[in-house]
Amino acid sequence: MHCILSIESAKALNLVSNYFTAEFRMKSLISSGVVSLVLLASASASAAVCVQVDEARDNLDPAERTAVKTMVEESLRGQNQSVSDANCDTTYKIYSLRLGNSVTANISGPNGSKSQKASSIEELPETYDQLTRSLLNGETGSTTTAGVNRHNVTKQQAVQRRIVADNLWFLRLGYGAVAGGDIASGPAFGLGYRYELDQLGIEISTLNIVAATDGSSDDGLGVSASWIRLGGLYFFNPVANHSAYLNVGLSWGTSASRSQYQGESYIYSGSGIQGEIGGGYEFLRASTIRMFVEANAVLPFYTSSIDWSIVDDSIYTPTFTISLGVGYGSSNRSAVEIY
Question: At the N or C end, where does the chain have fewer CB atoms within 10 A?
Answer without folding.
Answer: N
